[in-house]
Design brief:
Elements: E1 8-10, E2 16-19, E3 35-41, H1 59-66, E4 69-75, H2 80-89, H3 121-127, E5 131-137, E6 165-169, E7 182-184, E8 187-188, H4 197-210, E9 218-223, H5 235-239, H6 248-263, H7 288-318, E10 325-331, E11 353-354, E12 367-368, H8 373-379, H9 392-395, E13 396-402, E14 411-418, H10 422-430, E15 435-438, E16 441-442, H11 452-455, E17 465-470, E18 473-478, E19 481-485, E20 492-495, H12 511-527
Parallel strand pairs: 3-9, 3-10, 4-14, 5-6, 5-9, 11-12
Antiparallel strand pairs: 1-2, 2-15, 4-13, 6-7, 7-8, 10-13, 15-16, 17-18, 18-19, 19-20
């Protein structure tokens, strides 16, 4: 970061001891500090937006990309709760206590909630004078509907971790029409009649903007559940996609890939990965009408999310905040290959029509289903594999950055970035200060690099290396080389510069590099208390 000076502060309020090494105002002054909106989708594949090659109309996000930035090599952690922890804290998820999901445990890297060694961007920006709002899925504190006595840990709820206002849920999934764990502030509430969660998330975000103090900037975290299963969408949105997917997943993958080439989202040598060999060809697939309907509901969920994002942008315009608001949009992981059996599971609500069979067309509140592995393969075009894997299909996310007062380029940026970069980015543009202590607990230094130079048309600081681990699936990227393995599986080596679709495994050729990168990954795993170090 290009800091103009270093300074020392002692602050109270949240119990933070703040030593500035990174946060003094540089290219923005206190009077021009931007508002900030971070929008996270859930289980959205790399190619599921129009501006990233999709046939799904996302006109509002496309417009943000047209005059903003699109990053092509931005990474998440491959799963919801870990990605949200890294987004909020600037740490690898293990360091924040969220190496897995939000199930309670006493293992330091897998507490199932944000620990006391991290701070959230809301806590940091609140001390810098920002109003702090959140709508949507939290998922970084304990919640399990089956064990309500162990589900509550208020110290890690949003209002206790820096947010002034919160409307949303704790659980990782659930009904869009009647979600479990819905809260307003610190109070659990029941949804009203005619409730649809995606609209409620976006419309509450609009309300927070409209009622914000005009004399101080705000940061707003809009954490969507869409398009995570269950496949729940509004009937008029589903109808928009009647017949669209009758051509099948093979044609959809090819068409998306061709658009991505046209948009220059990657270099031409990145060939389209073969269809996952577990999936049948569309030609040989039975029940095509049902399969096409599943993808239509998924597309409707994305369309509705984009429609609401348009209302957020319009609210910014109406309130005079549009020009000086930074909007960041990304996904927490790649498309999800999960399937849902017909066995009842009341963690997420009560669904009389549970399961994925051609007799049940999903979409309504009584259904519980996902869109399946083959459509997830299409969502992650042109990459291999899915959410939870550390191949590119699991960890690659779109990233759109839009800030009219600063960015006016529509550029496509190929620099590598990671979700841990969000915290230092917000610190730099807000003039915030990253603390050394919170409530007398020593805070780990953040791991990421600021993206702010990219907003000003400059080259950002490159990552020397990046690391991943989740339930034993693991990877390390060093420069243009990536070493990746499934749990218990062989390490594979790829030249990402020329083969980002991970087709040509070079591990048997570059054995010395494999050995060295394995050791690099193990050193990181030990440093962040990862229990899987093989």
């Amino acid at each position: 970061m290009n800091l103009e000076n270093n300074c020392l502060f002692q602050c109270t309020g949240l119990g933070l001891t703040l030593i500035t090494i990174v946060g003094c105002v540089n290219k923005t002054t206190v009077n021009t500090r931007p508002n900030i909106i971070i929008i996270m989708a859930d289980d959205l594949g790399y190619s599921d937006l129009g501006c990233y090659g999709s046939e799904i109309p996302t006109p509002n996000l496309d417009r943000l990309a047209e005059t903003g930035l699109r990053l092509t090599q931005f990474y998440n952690t491959s799963r919801s709760a870990p990605s949200r922890a890294s987004l909020l804290t600037g740490l690898y998820s293990h360091q924040a206590g969220m190496g897995e999901l939000n199930k309670p445990s006493d293992r330091p890297a897998y507490l199932g909630r944000l620990n006391e060694k991290c701070v959230t961007f809301a806590e940091v920006l609140k001390e810098a004078g920002y109003q702090t709002f959140m709508t949507g899925k939290w998922h970084v504190s304990h919640y399990d509907e089956r064990e309500p006595d162990t589900a509550l840990h208020p110290q890690s709820w949003p209002l206790q971790r820096g947010f002034d206002k919160f409307f949303g849920t704790h659980t990782g999934a659930g009904s869009y029409f009647n979600p479990v764990s819905l809260m307003h502030g610190n109070t659990f509430i029941d949804p009203p009649d005619n409730f649809y969660y995606t609209d409620a998330i976006n419309d509450t975000a609009c309300s927070f903007i409209e009622n914000a103090d005009k004399d101080n900037p705000f940061v707003l975290y809009v954490a969507h559940v869409a398009p995570h299963w269950p496949l729940h969408a509004l009937p008029h949105h589903i109808k928009m996609f009647d017949g669209v997917y009758n051509k099948g997943w093979d044609n959809i993958r090819t068409e998306r890939y061709e658009r991505m080439l046209k948009y220059r989202l990657f270099r031409e040598p990145w060939v389209l990965s073969p269809r996952d060999d577990v999936n049948t060809s569309w030609k040989d697939t039975p029940d095509k009408e049902w399969e096409a309907h599943r993808m239509a509901v998924y597309a409707a969920q994305i369309y509705c999310m984009d429609e609401g994002i348009g209302r957020i942008v319009e609210t910014l315009r109406r309130t005079g905040r549009y020009e000086n608001t930074l909007i960041l949009f990304l996904s927490d992981n790649g498309g999800c290959r999960s399937s849902i059996s017909g066995d009842p599971d009341h963690r997420y609500g009560f669904f009389p029509l549970t399961g994925e069979t051609p007799e049940i067309f999903p979409g309504g509140p009584e259904t519980l289903a996902a869109y399946g592995r083959a459509w997830a393969n299409a969502s992650n075009t042109p990459f291999r594999l899915y959410k939870m894997w550390m191949n590119e299909g699991g960890i690659s996310t779109p990233l759109i950055a839009h800030w009219p007062a600063v960015i006016n380029s529509g550029k496509i940026i190929h620099q590598v970035g990671h979700i841990i970069d969000i915290m230092p980015t917000l610190i730099e543009i807000s003039g915030g200060v990253y603390p050394t202590h919170r409530n007398r607990n020593e805070i780990l230094p953040f791991e990421g690099n600021s993206l702010a130079p990219l907003f000003h048309g400059e080259a950002g600081r490159e990552h020397e290396d990046l690391f991943w681990e989740h339930f034993g699936n693991r990877a390390v990227r060093e420069g243009n080389w990536k070493l990746v393995a499934e749990k218990g599986g062989k390490w594979e080596l790829y030249d990402i510069e020329n083969d980002r679709t991970e087709i040509n495994d070079l591990s048997d050729i570059h054995t010395d590099r494999v050995r060295r990168m394995k050791e690099l990954w193990k050193e990181w795993a030990v440093r962040v208390n990862c229990e899987y170090t093989e």
